[in-house]
Amino acid sequence: MVPSAGDDDSAVSEYEAVEARTSGYRNAKVATKSNKSNLAYALRAFSKALSQPQESEWTEDSSISEAASASIDMSNGGAPIVGSSVATPVPSGPRLERQATRTIQFTGLPPGVTHQDIVKVVRGGKLVEVYLSHRYRNGSVSFVYGEDAKAFFARSRHSDLYIKGQKVNLKWSDRQFALTDYIAGKIKSGASRTIVIRNCESNLSEAMIRADLDHIHNLVVIKVEFFDKSCFIQTNSVSKAMMARTCLSSRLRYRGYRLQWGPDECDRPLAEIRPLAEHALAERPPAKPNNYPMTSFLTRPNRFEMLRLGDKDTSGTSGNSDSDSDSRDSDDTLQ
Prior knowledge:
The chain is α+β, with helices and mostly antiparallel strands. The chain has ten helices and eleven strands.
């Protein structure tokens, strides 16, 4: 039996349909293998990234990174290659190291010293923590950057450091402050020891703020100041300031205000550290009033003058008695 033309057409169409289904299955299988391989590659890269230690510091090199340099076409004047996503330079700045020589210890502090007395004389950079021990009369300050700590230490050893008119000794602490990745990230975002409450006007008071923050362990509110409708709260630590800011933002009383990070009082030039002469003049106790000045001593009457007058009276009296006795003797002679 000879097949007709209609049978040939139906066989061809059926063959094409089967081929289409087969090719679609083959393409789907290849795509599945590709997706699986991509997923496996992504998982391996993710696990490798987790196994490597995280770097929590800015690079000190102001040049661009290796990945960025690999994606730049130097033949085109340094223009980035099309499709490159790493052609931007890495931000430059001081190193924010996790482990650094940043803690300076003060010994021989005067009695009654406070955190405010310490931060008043510290200059040269931001502080991450201020510690004070009244029992042992010592304390310590930890700078954010190790370079700032070294500069302040050198300046203080050269020109001496005085707190409340008394010279204090400085040395590098045996236990250096170590930054965690979380605190380092917050500091890069602008966190500091100072909290600023904007547009609070006269609705808040210092006693009210201190009472709201009194429950935070080891938090010391060094100073609360109101200036230009804003409240500046200075604390003893960046980590404690972060807890204090979270606490204030959760309270209904502070919901309508904007809480921000403020500048550190110690982040000022080292030139503001006063020399010994200025410290002596500033811390000199007030002079006692001179009750006996030299001029009054010269013009003051002699307090023994009364005795001299008594001598005159006595001499006059004795003279009169002698004259009376002489007169009596003369009378007796006449008789």
